[in-house]
Amino acid sequence: MALLINEDCISCGVCEAECPNDAISEGDSIFVIDPDRCTECVGFHDEPQCIDVCPVECIVPDPEHEETKDQLLEKKKKLHGE
Ligand code: SF4
Ligand code: SF4
């Protein structure tokens, strides 16, 4: 499933550069993840890179965007054409 950034985000911006899918951007008050681009890093890394670098642990699974690993891999292929 895609991940989401909750209200604990301190807008440090560290996660944005780590995303292989350009899924993270600065929102109105906190950073946001585009669920159409987040693959939980499937196809690139074993672990979500944004969670690894976030200093306040505010990135969590998005229950409204549940997806299997196969669906995430399919999304990755659509985004990157491979
Ligand atoms: S889990 Fe990976 S793909 Fe999803 S927002 Fe974080 S860094 Fe990007
Ligand atoms: S690393 Fe964490 S605190 Fe920093 S912008 Fe990303 S989600 Fe927010």
Describe this structure as you would to a colleague.
The structure is a single chain. With 82 residues, the protein is an alpha+beta fold. The chain has a single domain, classed as Alpha-Beta Plaits (2-Layer Sandwich). It has 2 helices and 4 strands; from the N terminus they run βββαβα. The chain has helices spanning 49-53, 69-80; strands at residues 3-5, 24-26, 31-33, 59-61. A two-stranded antiparallel sheet has the order 1-4. A two-stranded antiparallel sheet has the order 2-3. β2 and β3 (31-33) form a beta hairpin. It is globular. The mean pLDDT is 96. Residues 3, 18-19, 21, 23-24, 33, 38-41, 48-50 line the site of one iron/sulfur cluster.
Q: Measure the end-to-end span.
A: 20 Å
| Mean of residue pLDDT values | 96
The residue fraction in helices comes out at 10-25%
Q: What is the count of helical runs? A: 2
Q: Kindly identify the CATH topology.
A: Alpha-Beta Plaits
How do the strands of the widest beta sheet line up side by side? 1-4
CATH architecture: 2-Layer Sandwich
Structural class: alpha+beta
| Main beta-sheet annotation | 2 strands, antiparallel
- The domain tally reads 1
